[in-house]
Amino acid sequence: ACSQFSQRSCEECLSNVSCLWCYTNNTCLDYPVRSILPSSSLCSLSNARWGVCWINFEALIIAIAVIAGLILVSIAVCCCYCCYCRRRSKSRPDEEEEQLARKREERRLQSLQRKHERKQKHDEIRKKYGLLQDSDNPYSRFENE
Question: Where is region (Disordered) located (predicted)?
Answer without folding.
Answer: 107-145
